[in-house]
Write a structure and sequence with these properties.
Elements lengths: L2 E3 L6 E3 L3 E2 L5 H14 L3 E3 L7 H13 L9 E6 L6 H15 L4 E6 L7 E2 L4 E2 L15 H13 L3 E7 L3 H10 L6 E5 L7 H9 L3 E5 L7 H4 L18 H10 L3 H10 L4 E2 L6 H8 L8 H8 L27 H8 L2
Parallel strand pairs: 3-4, 4-5, 5-6, 6-9, 9-10, 10-11, 11-12
Antiparallel strand pairs: 1-2, 7-8
The chain binds NADP nicotinamide-adenine-dinucleotide phosphate.
Length: 336
């Protein structure tokens, strides 16, 4: 249960990874080093988290200190929305590998299915004078994917995947690619269990990684003044009475129950923490088991679409992109 096997390469992906969104470079460097010392072997980052260089420093130091080798680690990063086009894949991947100080990444994901035009100087999205993001309407997943396949052949990427794609978008890549998507990273927690999407992935031999597995308690502060966001969107999963009750009976914490619940179903989890205590807590998942009765109780917490936190509407105008993956959300709002 500590690993899942990826299709096509048979690489082993640790079911526990360290999330690093909202972790500043100053903090994440020592966090990653500590996490590796604690036994974490899987780190999740992205171009957009602005911390790849610090993570690279920590990993290099850990290896130079003789504590392990690059082969012991599973490093994931993501092609950003501003680079979501065939002609930019190599440019971003090269830059990311340089920042991470690595020859290859274990997993490269297209971060989101939509694309924005890129400010060449800052490598951030161009925002129009009305506050809307400058959509790249030519986003073409298949041609982007084909370049990723070439990068895999060159040895720069070991495994290929997607993030925040819907079923139809994934299916199109499956139909038109040589290397099939091996991993899908999506929002997934007890309030938003994504059962249909998980069944689809299982049918296609795609491993699912759960982001925001604790319900992303820290996101509330991050989104506080963002366009289109209400603090009501953020669930208090860790405070849920049933999660707490199950935690007590196992002498575990609510976070451990929420993570174990997913790992026990072969879902990969990538909780983020920069606290020594919580890093340790989140890694202690493999010495107990939830009963079928408890699993059933947790299954019932699913709120379906109402449990979704990350709809990306904070990027003003994103719903007008032809590849915005959750069109049904805006259509439902229009008919209210
Ligand atoms: N692909 C995507 O679009 C996407 C989107 C969002 C996230 N992600 C990835 O998924 C990772 C996880 O998602 P997330 O960071 O949004 O949410 P999360 O892991 O569900 O929650 C992280 C938050 O919970 C706190 N926390 C961690 N362990 C805890 C514990 N044991 N008890 C109580 N609080 C705890 C952390 O604070 P402390 O640091 O203070 O402990 C942090 O504020 C990200 O870091 C990122 O790598 C990907």
């Amino acid at each position: 249960m500590k690993h899942v096997k990826l299709s096509q390469t048979a690489d082993l992906m640790p079911t526990l990874g360290l999330g690093t969104w909202q972790a500043s470079p100053e903090v994440i460097e020592s966090t990653v080093y500590k996490a590796l010392d604690l036994g974490y072997r899987h780190i999740d980052t992205a171009f957009n988290y602005n911390n790849e260089e610090a993570i690279g420093n920590a990993i290099k130091k850990w290896i130079d200190d003789g504590k392990g080798t690059r082969k012991d680690l599973f490093i994931t990063t993501k092609l950003p929305h501003v680079g979501n086009r065939a002609s930019d894949v190599k440019k971003f991947l090269d830059l990311q590998l340089k920042r991470l100080q690595m020859d290859y990444v274990d997993l490269y994901l297209i971060h989101v299915p939509f694309g924005f035009h890129c400010d060449a100087e800052t490598l951030t999205p161009v925002v129009n004078s009305n506050g809307e993001y400058d959509l790249d309407l030519d986003t073409d997943h298949v041609s982007t994917w084909k370049v990723m396949e070439c990068c895999q052949k060159e040895g720069l990427i070991r495994n290929l995947g997607l993030s925040n794609f819907n079923e139809a978008q994934i299916e199109k890549i499956i139909d038109e690619s040589t290397v099939k998507p091996q991993v899908l990273q999506v929002e997934l927690h007890a309030y938003f269990q994504q059962m249909d999407l998980r069944k689809f992935c299982s049918d296609h031999d795609i491993v699912v990684t759960a982001y925001a597995p604790l319900g992303s308690p820290g996101a509330k502060d991050h989104f506080v003044n963002k366009y289109n966001y209400s603090p009501d969107a953020f669930p208090d999963l860790l405070g849920h009475p049933e999660v707490n009750e199950i935690a007590k009976s196992h002498e575990k914490t609510p976070a451990q129950i929420l993570l174990r619940y997913l790992v026990q179903q072969s879902v990969v989890v990538i909780p983020k923490s920069t606290s020594d205590k919580r890093l340790k807590e989140n890694a202690s998942l493999y010495d107990f088991e939830l009963t079928p009765y408890e699993i059933n109780k947790l299954k019932k917490l699913d709120r379906g679409e109402d449990g979704r936190i990350f709809n990306f509407l904070f990027w003003k105008g994103v719903e007008n992109h032809p590849e915005y993956p959750f069109k049904f959300l805006t259509l439902a709002a229009d008919t209210k």
